[in-house]
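I am still getting used to backbone structure tokens and would like to learn alongside you. To get us started, please write out a protein record for me. Once you have written the record down, we can walk along the chain together.
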Amino acid sequence: MALVLTSNSFKDGEMLAKEHILSAKYGFGTDGGNKSPHLAWTGAPAATKSFAVTCFDPDAPTGSGFWHWVVVNIPAGTTELGLDAGNLEAGLLPKGALQTRTDLGATGYIGPAPPPGHGPHRYVFTVFAVKEETLPVNADTSAAVVGFNLHFNTLEKATLTGKYQR
């Protein structure tokens, strides 16, 4: 059985709701709720010792995309992250899970805020089945370094893509 990622918040290829868009407090001209969407997965390989979840915008005008969310060391028995799990103050992540630095320079979920008129951006949510219980990273580790570690420790991964434009 293959690893499959689903969400109660959006379907693959659909536009993301306003509650998932970056809030006004970040100063990028959006006024969303900045809540990470619900994500659920099934079909993890038997050798899975932990999971990681990321959200990446390959369409960001940076030359290297934009990392919106990075969570590692999610315990192996976990099969979903609830709505707003990326909120640092909510305490909704499973014990042991670690959010690392996004491209905004902070940890936690950073909702979409593409430039006006830039067209639809894709927000690729990925769940990774990881062969290690913990990765050698901390909260200040960059998404690129987390990605490097995931490259060598992923058993299987699955994606779900939401879109947003303004």
Observations:
- The beta strands are 4-6, 39-42, 50-57, 66-75, 80-81, 98-99, 121-130, 154-164.
- The first helix runs from residue 143 to 153.
